Amino acid sequence: MLKSKSQNNICEQEARFVQERITKVEKHFADLCTSFAAYARKAARLRDKNDELAKVIQNYAMSETVNQSLSRGLHNFGATLSVIGDYKDAEVQRIDSKIISTLSQYSMICRHAREDVKNTFSARDKELARRKHIDKLLLKEQGKSQTVSQADLKSMSNTVQVLKVVKGLEEQIDTFEKRKLQDLITLLLDFVMIELSFHTKAVELFTKAYQDIAEIDTFKDLEKFREILNASETFSRFDTVMRTSCRQSYSLTDLSNHQTPSPLQLKKMNRANESMDSLKAALMKSSELSQVSEYDESSDTRDTESVEDIAK
Q1: What separation in angstroms does the CA of 227 have from each of 46, 54, 126, 217, 232?
Q2: Furthest-apart CA atoms within the chain: distance in Å
Q3: What is the pLDDT along the chain (312 residues), one digit of tens a residue?
Q4: Is-contact 124 166, C-beta < 8 A?
Q5: Which GO terms describe its biological process (predicted)?
Q6: Minimal CA–CA distance to 50: which of 14, 18, 78?
Q7: Alpha helices in the chain, H assignment, sequence order
Q8: With b meaning 16 or more CB within 10 Å and e meaning fewer, what string describes 168-180?
Q9: Do the Cβ atoms of 47 and 88 come closer than 8 Å?
Q10: Is 67 helix (H, G, I), strand (E, B) or coil?
């Protein structure tokens, strides 16, 4: 009885220890999964901001038409930042596929391990209950040798079953612990290799970006700017001279227009003269017609007077 009680206590301690280990693994792996997911999101945001910066620099390079060296340097710098963004995207994808996916599986793994432990201990409890029942029978049937021998056989078989259950539990928890260690080491090494790969390429590309910016020739850009500035000043002076000369020519033409009428004005004046002439001709015709009518009337009166004189 004392031996069975000690074995029972040992099994209970093992069960408690196994449950605590599974709970700790589940908690810490969930925390790791959350932290790595947040890290990946931050890296993705940094990738997006890097792409925005590269786009702004590329737009500036395209719009710069005076400083050719600056435009070329900005174009190369923006292209290098775009390549760094591509490597940053690869880093995010690898963290998600190799680390976060592995850590997210451990909630299910721990649940299955806990269920296996629970099933194992329930089977062990059943075997222990049978053993207690057999022990009670042994106490009652101490005088009967056949009954005692049968009870001893059952007790021994139950003990063997309990030992098998305990051994199976130990193998299960050993497998779980081994997998946990291997997975944790593997994913942490993968994380280090992912970061080393990205930062190695980033150092190489940022070195190229530094060279692209350092190769910008400020003296040539300043000379080009000054040439364009001087040319624009000369053009503005020439434009001013042309405007003043045009104004003077316009003023002279205005004076000449005041002195000599334009063809249009001459045409209008001719039309006015023609209308005046036609009006005068009409008046002359009307006066002549009135004179003719008066002459005819006077001749008629004379003829009538002469006829009357002859008649008398």
Answers
A1: 41, 30, 99, 16, 8
A2: 213
A3: 444 455 556 567 777 888 888 899 999 999 999 999 999 999 999 999 999 999 999 999 999 988 989 999 999 999 999 999 999 999 999 999 999 999 999 989 888 888 887 777 776 666 666 666 666 665 665 555 545 455 555 555 556 666 676 677 778 788 888 999 999 999 999 999 999 999 999 999 999 999 999 999 989 989 888 888 887 666 565 456 556 655 555 454 554 554 555 555 556 556 656 655 665 565 565 555 555 454 454 455 444 444 445 444
A4: yes
A5: cilium assembly
A6: 78
A7: 2-63, 68-94, 101-104, 106-140, 145-214, 218-259, 263-311
A8: ebeebbeebeeeb
A9: yes
A10: coil
Cα within 13 Å of Cα(267), Cβ side:
3
Q: What is the residue-wise DSSP string for 264-301?
A: HHHHHHHHHHHHHHHHHHHHHHHHHHHHHHHHHHHHHH
Please report, as a single letter, which amino acid is at residue 77: F
CB distance 162 to 127 below 8 Å: yes
Q: Could you tell me if 159 and 131 are in contact, meaning their C-beta atoms sit under 8 angstroms apart?
A: yes
pTM recorded for the entire structure: 0.62
| DSSP type of residue 95 | I
Cα(17)–Cα(24) distance, rounded to whole angstroms?
11
Place of tokens 């999101």: 41
Long-range CB contacts for residues 110-114, cutoff 8 Å, separation at least 24:
110/22, 110/23, 110/25, 110/26, 110/29, 111/26, 113/22, 113/172, 113/173, 113/176, 114/19, 114/22
- Judged by phi (left if over 0) then psi (alpha if -120 to 50, else beta), residue 217 lies in beta
For residue 38, with 0-12 CB atoms within 10 Å meaning exposed, 13-18 middle and 19 or more buried, which class applies? Answer: exposed
Is residue 98 within 8 Å of 64, Cβ to Cβ? no
Residues 113 and 179 sit within 8 Å (Cβ to Cβ): no
